């Protein structure tokens, strides 16, 4: 049954979506889910998926609601699970608590759930309505959906450029093209993603930390992933020095023997693609199998072009600084294979937001 779109239902589901967003970047391989329990028109309990993917949102909300959950309405951003995993099914928790009505935003694409959670609730006599704010809920968990349906994480490419699309001077100077407000937003994006991918050339040129350094969010740094090209990561790189305290993965082509992997960094072998580098599609599949649902890419022009050419960029975060560098500057995207307007990668803009003097535009891949 389609969900009732009363103002109250919409408000409670929006609140559940806000709770779910708290889990982004922290709950992989699980989805980020929010749940609100409402009894007698009042919120009795709220919950969201906890770090590491459990406890689940429903059990958190039910625990806070206590006895008030009996006869209440549960607003859940994703279909409750109906299978036994590392935690009991959330459907059983909702049934045992005596919930009378469940409003579900979007169905779970996981074959272990997909429709069975809703069917189980209905079989127990709970009135179930689905589809309320479905588009928003699907977007929030687009990474989880991508891993289940495509076998790879959602790929978000972040670029910070001049107005004419340059990321550095001819000499390689790039700090700082954008201002402090835009850089702070980049750290927020890092906190919302499971993993952060760069090319080895970026590590060699910039020696980045690739962490989230906003006050209060330091513990939400993503897994750091480096895809190796023809050059090896220096043993003295910051990523290597801090690998014992922050998970760091190196993707390198199968059979490469010319240099050992950096000490402390987990080396993952990937089938080689063009030029002997790790095949990008295979690399993303490996990350998906490891549970990564949301991947933020902050690589250089070659990595950006490789992903765009392969049609593997799902979202774009493009920061524009109010300056022009000219032809001598290094482009954000190297040469693409597309030689015609109809063949070039296409996106639709979904947002525009100022950060100080800079602008961040967000895009979704146009299928």
Give the helices and strands, then pairings:
Elements: H1 7-21, E1 34-39, E2 42-48, H2 57-65, E3 73-76, H3 90-97, E4 101-104, H4 116-123, E5 127-130, H5 134-140, H6 142-150, E6 154-161, E7 166-168, H7 180-191, E8 195-199, H8 200-206, E9 223-227, H9 238-241, E10 248-253, E11 266-270, H10 280-289, E12 294-297, H11 301-309, E13 315-320, E14 330-331, E15 347-355, E16 358-365
Parallel strand pairs: 3-4, 4-5, 6-12, 6-13, 8-9, 8-12, 9-10, 10-11
Antiparallel strand pairs: 1-2, 1-3, 7-14, 13-16, 15-16
Helix pairs in contact: 3-4
Q: Pick out the low-confidence regions.
A: none
Order of helices and strands: HEEHEHEHEHHEEHEHEHEEHEHEEEE
Helix content bin: 25-40%
β-strand percent reads 15-25%
What's the shape? elongated
Number of continuous helical runs: 11
Taking all Cα atoms into account, the compactness measure Rg is: 22 Å
- Looking at how many chains there are and whether they match, the oligomeric state comes to single chain
Spatial order of strands in the largest sheet? 11-10-9-8-12-6-13-16-15
Mean pLDDT: 93
The largest sheet, given as strand count, sense and whether it forms a barrel, is: 9 strands, mixed
Span of the ends, CA to CA:
29 Å
Helix-and-strand structural type: alpha/beta
- Overall strand count: 16
């Amino acid at each position: 049954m389609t969900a009732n779109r009363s103002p109250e239902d919409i408000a409670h589901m929006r609140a559940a979506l806000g709770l779910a967003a708290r889990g982004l970047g922290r709950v992989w391989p699980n989805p980020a889910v929010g749940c609100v329990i409402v009894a007698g028109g009042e919120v009795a309990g709220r919950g969201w998926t906890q770090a590491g993917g459990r406890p689940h949102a429903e059990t958190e909300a039910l625990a806070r609601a206590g006895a008030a959950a009996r006869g209440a309405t549960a607003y859940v951003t994703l279909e409750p699970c109906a299978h036994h995993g590392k935690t009991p099914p959330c459907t059983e928790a909702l049934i045992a608590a005596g919930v009378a009505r469940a409003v579900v935003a979007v169905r779970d694409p996981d074959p272990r759930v997909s429709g069975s959670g809703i069917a189980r609730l209905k079989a127990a006599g709970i009135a179930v309505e689905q589809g309320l704010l479905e588009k928003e809920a699907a977007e929030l968990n687009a990474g989880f959906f991508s891993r289940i349906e495509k076998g790879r994480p959602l790929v978000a490419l972040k670029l910070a450029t001049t107005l004419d699309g340059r990321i550095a001077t001819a000499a390689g100077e790039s700090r700082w093209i954008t201002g402090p407000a835009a850089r702070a937003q980049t750290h927020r994006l890092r906190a919302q993603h499971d993993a952060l991918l760069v090319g080895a050339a970026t590590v060699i040129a910039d020696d980045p930390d690739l962490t989230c350094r906003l006050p209060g969010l330091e513990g939400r740094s993503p897994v750091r992933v480096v895809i190796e090209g023809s050059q090896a990561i220096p043993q003295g790189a910051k990523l290597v020095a801090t690998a014992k305290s922050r998970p760091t993965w190196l993707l390198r082509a199968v059979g490469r023997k010319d240099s050992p992997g950096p000490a402390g960094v987990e080396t993952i072998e990937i089938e080689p693609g063009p030029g002997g580098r790790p095949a990008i599609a295979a690399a993303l599949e490996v990350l998906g199998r490891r549970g990564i649902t949301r991947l933020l890419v902050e690589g250089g022009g070659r990595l950006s072009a490789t992903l765009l050419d392969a049609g593997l960029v799902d979202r774009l975060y493009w920061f524009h600084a109010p300056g022009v560098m000219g032809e001598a500057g290094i482009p954000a995207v190297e040469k693409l294979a597309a030689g015609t307007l109809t063949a070039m990668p296409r996106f639709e803009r979904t947002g525009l937001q100022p950060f100080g003097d800079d602008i961040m535009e967000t895009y979704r891949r146009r299928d």
